[in-house]
Amino acid sequence: MSIFGWARLWFVSGDRGRAWSMVALAVASLVALPIVQTIANHAQGALITTLAARDAAGFPAALAFAAGALAAVVPLTIFAGLIPDLTRNAWYRWLTGYTIERYLAQRAYYALGDRADVDNPDQRVAEEPGDFAAQLVTLGAAGVGALAGVIVPAFALWRIAPSLTVMALAYALAGSALGVVIFRRRLARLNNVQLEREADFRFGLIRIREHAESVAFYRGEEQERGVLRARFAAAIENALRLVRWQQTALPAFTNLYSVLPFAFTVLVLAPRVWTHGLRVGAVTEAIGDIAIVTAALGVVVTQLGALGQLGAAYARLAGLERACADAAALPATIGTRAADGVELDRLTLRTPDGTRTLFRDLDATLERGGSLVVRGPSGCGKSSLLRAIAGLWTNGAGTIGRPDLARMAFLPQTPYVALGTLRDQLSYPAPTQREMPESELLAVLETAGLAELPGRIGGFDADVDFARILSLGEQQRLAFARLLLAAPAIAILDEATSAVDAEREGRLYRELGERGITILSVAHRESVAALHAATLRFAGNGDWAVD
After folding, report:
1. Which residues touch 205 (CB under 8 Å, ≥6 apart)?
2. More confident residue, 417 or 267
3. Which of 10, 295, 348, 543 is 20 to 30 Å apart from 46, CA to CA?
4. What is the DSSP annotation of 40-70?
């Protein structure tokens, strides 16, 4: 999708009424501003002419007109700055929502984990929509202001000195072309590299926070410090290059570009003043007019920094969009059909990139209400089988029979701890369960061995960092309590009780059986295997057996 395609999304969405009205207001304010500025400029010129001519009678009227025109410029300037900013915020809000939808749709966020070409997708979702909207509004406002800023002052300037108007137009066009040649590509590349390197540094910090205990046990501070310093140094190195071009070379060019028109305006008009053919105030008017014209036509030069940032934000958004589209378009070569239990018919499973076949022609059936444990050496495809049943891995052949995914629950070895209250933890991912009576919530916590948890944290509506205050075993038991509340037809457990003591583990599995929930587990413990009626064994070389 092109930059234009990204820009038009808001204007054809359900929020298009807001989009068009805000842009219309912004355009109106930006068009009105140069008109009033030109009127104020000529009012000042007329005032100076009365002073030069010692026209005491005409001075009060000229002063009043100049003051009124200048007073009108102030609110218009504020309005012309405020409305684009409000437009940017509204666009940012909508575009972020759109990007989140694309990121979560069809489980694209899961597929992106294997994409080396899409670095830091979380940063792309969180920051790039804001950068894209901000720079596009900045450039759009500059473009509208440029168009409006040329017509009225150029017409007024033509009445004073036609040759000067031609010179101003030629100068602005030549300066813009030169600025684009020198700065555009370089600034776009440096901005894109800066976004990537800052995101890499931030990702390193996030990983330390997420794996703080592991790093502490390993005493890996020195290596982590080295990684962070290297990533930060790379970001600073590129930032210094960006500063040299964006804060030194570009301002020098734009300042020189802005100053020269004043010099040649005075040089062109001075002889006409000396011969008394031109009033003194006209020089002030011409200087103001040409400043507006060159600033308007030189918008490409003055906005080269924004243009580079827009290009960088677009490139990263477009990359994320393509990756999400690719994820949604991945062909599913494993068929699915409705079934009460789990039925695997001649199932062959390959890794998503197709480089490895995990097993071939697997036939196994788990009847409703039954239990099956999957065992085998590490890397043989046990967890991958669960991914295939969940529809996460679809590269292979054969057919999987299962209920609708809404009637199934999956518990990984490392349970997901949601943000929010204890009530939110227990109801995840079904918000409707948040209204369950506390007595029911407490009952499942007692079954999971967590009856004291509400009192320990301050109640079911206490919002705490559960990932920090709960041990892995407690997190696994909390996930089990969530499972019991959800009451699925099938529970699929991947080492889901590895950190739970054997007695509690057996009690939890028996609770599932008593509730008629079909159980499919991956487990290494013999104690867990003994709790299942059948076993699917993988040999590690693609062979399998059911007993």
Report:
1. 228
2. 417
3. 295
4. HHHHHHHHHHHHHTT-TTTHHHHHHHHHHHH
Q: Which domains does the chain carry? A: 3-329 (1.20.1560.10), 335-546 (3.40.50.300)
pLDDT tens-digit series, residues 202-234: 888 888 877 776 777 667 788 888 888 988 999
Model confidence, pTM: 0.65
Q: Is 499 helix (H, G, I), strand (E, B) or coil?
A: coil
Taking the C-alpha atoms of residue 371 and residue 536, their distance in angstroms, rounded to an integer, is: 11
CB of 508 within 8 A of CB of 482? no
CA dihedral of residues 47, 53, 56, 61 (deg, nearest 10): -30
**Pick from 286, 320, 396: nearest CA to 352:** 396
Whether omega before 377 lies within 30 degrees of 0, making that bond cis, reads: no
Other C-beta atoms closer than 10 Å to the C-beta of 191 total 25
* Phi, psi torsion values for 532, nearest 5 degrees: -115, 150
How far apart CA 374 and CA 398 sit, in angstroms, is: 19
Q: Assess whether pLDDT exceeds 90 at residue 391.
A: no
Q: Is 11 left (phi over 0), alpha (psi -120 to 50) or beta?
A: alpha
Beta bridge partners of 348: 397
Determine contact, residues 315/192, Cβ cutoff 8 Å. Answer: yes
Residues 349 and 397: beta-carbon distance below 8 Å: no
